[in-house]
Amino acid sequence: MKENPCRKAGSIGKGHADEMQFWTTDEFKKFLGKVSDKPQARAGFLILYYTGLRIGELLALEYGDIDFKNCTINVNKSYQHIRGKDVVTPPKTPKIVRIVSILEFLRDEIRNYTERLYGLHKHDRIFPYTKSFFEHEMIRGTKDGDVKWIRPQDIRRSHASQLIHMDFSILAVSERLGHEKVHPPASVRSPLSGSPWQCGPAATGRVRRIPFTGSVAKCQYQPKFVKVVHFWYTFKK
C-alpha cells in the first residue's frame, strides 16, 4: 500500500471550512451499500445522514433515547474516549438538548439493529464503539474511488446543506442541528445546486399527499420538518 489511508482521513474535528465536502443522496446510498455488511455501520451512518447528529451524540445514544412510537430521538449527551475510558458528558449548552424527528424507515432500521443486541437495557449505549470505528468504515466505503471520501463530520453538513437547498431557514436548520448561535456558517451553506435531489413542484406536490404518522409535537418548526420527513420518505420510495 503506497499511501496510509489514516493519514488521508486525518482526525475528526479538524480541518478548514474550505475543505468541507458533501454527499448527495445517491452518493450516500452508494457508500452505504459498501458498509452495510456491518449492521452497526449501516445503522450509524443512516442516523448521521438523516438526522445531522454529531458523531459524539450518535455514540452517546442509549436505547431509551429512541422513541419508536413517536419516531423521535432524544439528543441529550455526548461521548468521548479519553485515555482509554468511555466518557459520556452532558451538553455544553442548552441548545444541544433537542428532540429530533426521524423517518419511519429510519425508525425501522434502528429497531432492526437494536433487536440484534442481546440483553439491551434502557441505559445501554446502542453504539458501544469509538469515533475511530466510523472513521475506518468511511475509509473502507470509499477506498475504491466510486464514492468520494468525506470526513465523518461532513455527513452532518450534508444533512444541513440539503435542508438549505430546500429553502429551509437558517434558524430552522440551526434548531434541528443543535447550534448555539444562529448564523449562516459554512457548515450549513448549500453546494447542491444542480444535484440529483428532486426539489421541484412535482416532488413537493407528492409530499403533501402523504399522511404523516410520526410525532413532531416538540419541534418548533413543525410544518417545515414534516415537509422534510415527507420529502425523504417519497425519495426513499
TrEMBL record:
Domain spans labelled Tyr recombinase: 18-209
Keywords annotated in UniProt: DNA recombination
Pfam families linked to this entry: Phage_integrase
GO molecular function: DNA binding
Biological processes per GO annotation: DNA integration; DNA recombination
Protein name per its UniProtKB record: Site-specific integrase
Gene3D superfamilies, per the entry: Intergrase catalytic core
Matches recorded under InterPro entries: DNA_brk_join_enz (IPR011010), Integrase-like_cat_sf (IPR013762), Integrase_catalytic (IPR002104)
